[in-house]
Every structure is written in structure tokens, then in C-alpha cells.
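ok trying again, last paste got cut off:
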Amino acid sequence: MNSTNNSPGLKAGEPISGNYKKTFLLFLLIWLIVNLIQAVFTEVLSDEAYYGLFGKYLDWGYYDHPPMVALMTRISSLFFSGNLGIRFMTIILQLGTIILIWKTAGFNKPGRTNVETFFIIAGSISLFSVYGVLTSPDSPLLFFTALFFLAYRNFLKQQNLRSVLLLAISMAGLVYSKYQAVLVVGFVILSNFKLLKMPRFWLSGIIALVILAPHIYWQIDNGFPSFQYHLVARSKGFRWQFFLEYLPYQLAVFNPFTLGAVIYVMIKYRPENPLEKSWYFQIAGFIGFFWIMSFRGHVEPHWTIACSIPVILILSEKCRTDASVLRYTRRFILPSIALLLAIRIIMMTDIRLVRNLAFGGKEKKYKEIEALAKDLPVVFTGAFQRPSLYTFFTGKEAMPISTLYSRQTQFDIWQPEKKYHNKPAFICLNQLRNSQIYVSDTIGFGGFVTDSLQTVNRMKIEYDLQQVDFSPGDNLTIQFSLHNPYEFDIDFNHVRFPVELSIVFIKRREITIVQAFPVRPVNIIAAGETIDSEVSIKIPALQDGKYNFGLSLSNMFGPSMNSRFTKINIRKND
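nice, full thing came through this time. structure:
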């Protein structure tokens, strides 16, 4: 791109203020119509169905995310059912996001060219468009990021009570949306350390904390499950794949033409004021931070989506002052939107590719399970995806039984399976043991009807481990206590769901399970009862390394998380 600072973005002779508002509203209306069509005809994803359940049970927090996405789906469900019952507020919120970004840009005497360029850039960012349709915590994150930058712009101009309150509300809204909020605020502070010397900035932070108090209390009351999940459970260790795939994924998130243009602008031009500097820090900070985070595990591509706000702001501003950036935008970024529109149209079809990407074909599958389960609750193995989709498509209750092979979810806080202990249920399993095989035109799955469900996920095991260094073949004796917190007895010799005690060794994704036999056999543990016992095992032939060690109760669903896990070392004898 050949640069020049002399050519403004406005066309010669173009009305300065005449029709730009009508043009802006026209583009906003087109954006709304496109997103509505997409939302209605694109099948709901499992994550969206999960957030739809959040909305049915409003709370100040959830295992995976803060509560803003739950409020969105709850409001949507008040006006619509089906897809729009989950997505309506997402569509509305993005219209607000676009308006806030436009206000933050603050064009001096804008014209239609500014409006056209603004919408070209916004429409070219792949996931920015996606989160105007698909419901996710990223949708309110984008809205409150845009509000935060508008509030910051006003705060830099005048530190009055109004700007302080707007800044506080935007920061609280960010945290209530997604925990990446800390980075949004943090990179702005890094771009302008003078903020830390401003009493009114601290006041806005204190007000934000007051607004956040209910969510903070929820986290404390529930043992900080969100932080345990995001900061500990998602760490998978370094892999070259995670590191090398990061930048290509970012190109897909932001559109390679758009991301390339903003990198060019950031290299060529220095920010002219603290507000522009904060945009630069936001983009460089987010992309750099999560690239570093790829050293500890897989980074989801959309975690950097908050950067789309400063990307739109920076490019819209430079298209106004640099003719070469404007030409590039029209020549390369604008045509790329056609490809994005084609992809969005394909997403609304039911071709095999779309089904493989989970955008289609799910409703028929869960309707067929419903035909077999009838009015019984359906119990799945695994995480939240299948029960959430089953409930969305059928309106009937379903639940997962999490195991060490899956992750814990909000269902582990709700614990809906306790309602059906010793009651009939339809068990839908991945494995086929004890199952009748149901085959249809679209699916095959294992399942059976039980007249007496028994689960042991909530049983608690405490143990005393005297050492942490072992070698394969070592004899290990462990004292443990087993507590039944349920209001009903647990039968270890249950006809359908017998229970076994297991010793578990976990190294990254590899799980080794050794069945253990207590010195005093366990038959029935009464409701509220705790028993003390002892178990001895021989350390299996494991590879050298560090392992997470724990005790688990296993049944048909698999080994469950019943105890804490302790770090141990396995070393072969020399």
C-alpha cells in the first residue's frame, strides 16, 4: 500500500452531514436482517443450548462463565421460542455494539464514505459477524468492550461523575460477560499508567467491584469453580501443534486481509493520543498474550475476539486520512466479504460438511432418542453437549454423568441426577455394554431403560498418602474414609449400577485405573454415613514422570471425581 496523509476519506463534493445518518441506518437494517435470517435457519450449537439452560436457572455465576450470557438467553426466551429464544438478544446486542464503536470513532463531519468503509471493515471480521448471530459470552464481551472504549474516551476528555459511572458500569459488564475482561482493562492501564494516579479512575474501579459483589460472593460460595476450570483444568502442557496453529487461526478469526491491514497501520503510524495508544496495546497485548499462553495448552481462536473493536476503530480512522488504506480496503477487504457471506449461506444448509461442523443434522438425532425414551429423563455420559441439545430440541430433561474422561460442568453444580435416584430413566451410553443397539437412518447408539438409577459422582473420599515418590511394583497401603452425602443409600452391589473402588494415575490425558479392594468389603453405605477403611495395591508399570494420584468410584458410567488429586513421582529403580 502506498501511503499518503493528504487524501481524506471523503469523496470530493460529497455532502458532509446530509445523508450519512440515513446511510448508517440503512446498513444497520441490512445487518439486522442478515443476522435474523442466519439466526433462524442455522441450527443451534451445543454451547448455545447449554447457555439456554443457564437462562432457565438464573444465578450470579456458572461453572464455565459469568452470568451475562444467561441473562441474554433468559430475555430472548421471553419473546421467542426455538432459535430466536436463544439468539434474539445476541442480534440486538451487536447492533448496540456497532453503534458504540461508531460513537467511539467520533468522526469529525462524517460522510457516506466513512459509513460505508466502517461497515466494510466491521463486516469483514469473521468472528465479529459470527457473534452477532451465535449466542456466546463473547457477544456481551464485545458490547461491553465497545462501551468501555467509549467510556474511556469520555473519561479522557472530562473526569466528571457521568464518565466515572459509565466507566464503572462498562468494567463490571465486561467481567459479568467473560473473564478476558481483565485483559481489556489491564492493557488500557498498561497503555496509560497515568490512570493509576487519577483518584476518579480508582473510584470507577471501586464502583465496579461493588456491582460485581454478587458474582464474587457466588465464586467464593462455590469454591471458585470457574477459576479452577480456566486456570488449572484447561492446561494441557506444551505441544508444538498449539504454538504453530495459533497465528493461522488468528488470520481466520480476523480475516487475513483485515488483520494484515491493521498490522501495516500499527507498524507505519504511531498512535496520536492515549485513546489510540490503548487500541494499539489492546491488539498487540491480546494476540501476544494468548500466543504465549499456547505454551501451556490449546488456545481457542476466539479468545482474542475483543481485539476486533480496536481493529475496526484503527482501520476506520486510517481510511479517513490515508487514501492508500482506503483503496486497499475497497480492493481487498470488501471482496472478502463475499466469501464470508457464502460461508454463512452454506451454514444454513444440511449438507454433510455442515453436519460434520455441528451446524446441522442434530435435531433429527435427538428426536429419535426421545421416541425411545418417551417421557423418561435421559442420562448421558460425557460433558454438557448432548444433554443440552436433547433438552433444547425436545423440551425434556436430560443430564450428563461426568467422569474422569470428561470435564465437570454446570451440571455438577446443579446435580439434577439426584432427583432420579432409584427411579426410572433412559440411559444413553457411548459404550454398548448392557445396552440394546438402536439403529436409525441417521444414528446408532447404545441405550436401555432402567427402573432404578444409581450414581456415585457426589460421594466423597478422603485419603492419607504418606509419600509421593514411588517405583513400579512398590506396595502401597492407603487409609481412606468414604462419605455418602446423599439422602439415600448407595448399594455397591446394585443390579444395574454396581460400584468399584479404584486407584487412579493421571499423566496429561493418559488415565491408568487400578481396581482396589478394601480390607473390609463395602456393601451398602447409608445416607449420611462415613466409613473408614484401608486398601493396598501394587504400583503398576508406569513410565517415569509426574502423575496426579487419587481415589475414584467407578460404575457403568466410568470413574468419577470423588477425591482430591495429589502430585506424585514415578521413577524406575536403577
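cool. Residues 123 and 175 are 26 Å apart (CA to CA). The chain has three domains: 20-347, 363-450, 460-570.
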